[in-house]
Amino acid sequence: MAQPTSTAPNVYDAEPIPDAARAEVERLLSSGDLFRYTSDDAPVALLEREFADLMGTKYALAVASCSAALFLSLKALDLPRGAKVLIPAFTFAAVPSAVVHADCTPVLVEVGDNYRIDMADFEAKLTDDVAAILISHMRGHTSDMDAILALAEDRGLPVIEDAAHSLGTLWHGRKIGTLGCVGCFSFQSYKLLNAGEGGILVTDDDDLIARAVIMSGAYEHNWKKHARVSSRLSHWQNKLPLYNTRLNNLSAALIRPQLDELPRRVRDGRAGHDHVAAQLNAAPWFDVPPSLDPELRAPDSLQFNLVDFSDDEVEGFIDAAKARGVSVQVFGLSTDNARAFWNWQFLGDQPDLPMTRAMLRRACDTRLPARLTREEQDYIAGALLLAASDVKDLRAYGT
């Protein structure tokens, strides 16, 4: 078992913004030129082109958040009011919120103890009145996209990917976020690309991007200042409401130099995650679900299940880990947790989801930034193992 060093690592600070951003930020601060439509080659337009090239897609649209990207994607699909949209029951509250804001109705699908959609429940709920599928790769765990995409294609349904936690993840070698008709990513501080806030959507669909660009806030002829212009934009001008959820140039200037850092962050994040996961899985009280065979993950945090723990033991484990400087969140036991579906009271009455509920009451989440050293990773693993030992009295562990 890994033995912790004397000092718990700081897991909340993000990596420093690359020096390459500083000159551009200073230029923007000096000029005050923060609005994305001031010029044709604004930092936001350049970011969109570079991100689309990175993902291998035709278009990208940078907006205020991943939640805004999800909302615009749903609106751009022109779904009828009240249309049903399947989403996983394990996701962040912003995902069902985006569905509600788009005047649609979320239908929650069970999620198993591997944090992925239960395909039996998914297929059962894929009724004739479902109009779209929104797959949230929650915490970077990819559901069975082969089965999901096959069922969607058979029924002619669009698939939106919430890839907020999955930038850099591959599925059969293809980039997550490019499997459906549109993929949405986050630039919030705890993601692999950090602008504090922000999001981006990618697609190859000419009509979808045109509608999304207009609704994002491209009033008058500002859509002409996007790096890549769909032939459908002129058609949709003045025909759609404006939601004004644009990204600003300062955020784009912070993100663009980080694109070159992404391969290293993905590599280091995966190596650190797998190093800690192997130590936890060697103990009897932890289960870190493995990747699916087609999936090459790019983790930005660590999730694991507590095995054979009572509620009191779970609370004891959280306290014991915290005493060693490692914060652990149990999704279904944290008060008002925004990832526990029963706290989404804005949805009204929902059917109980016993599989997801049971998983959330034992599923743990702890930060594991890609920047951590091996010693810091060992500290976290050791602290978690010793915390379980405190609760379970595992004096015989390792003998």
Keywords:
single chain, alpha/beta, Aspartate Aminotransferase, domain 2, Aspartate Aminotransferase, domain 1, 2 domains, 7-stranded mixed β-sheet, 4-stranded antiparallel β-sheet, disordered C terminus
What does this 3D model show about the protein?
By secondary structure, this protein is an alpha/beta fold. The protein has two domains: 20-260, Type I PLP-dependent aspartate aminotransferase-like (Major domain) (Aspartate Aminotransferase, domain 2), CATH 3.40.640; 262-392, Aspartate Aminotransferase, domain 1 (Alpha-Beta Complex). It is built from 13 helices and 14 strands. The protein has helices at residues 20-31, 43-55, 66-76, 94-101, 119-125, 145-155, 206-217, 233-236, 249-255, 262-281, 311-323, 354-360, 374-392, and strands at 59-63, 84-88, 105-109, 130-136, 159-162, 170-171, 174-175, 182-186, 199-203, 286-287, 295-296, 301-306, 329-330, 363-367. The strands form three sheets. It has a seven-stranded mixed beta sheet with strand order 1-9-8-5-4-2-3, sandwiched between helices. The protein has a four-stranded antiparallel beta sheet with strand order 10-12-14-13. Helix 3 (66-76) crosses helix 7 (206-217) and helix 10 packs parallel to helix 13 (374-392). The radius of gyration is 22 Å and the shape is globular. The termini are close together. The model is unreliable at 395-399 (pLDDT under 50).
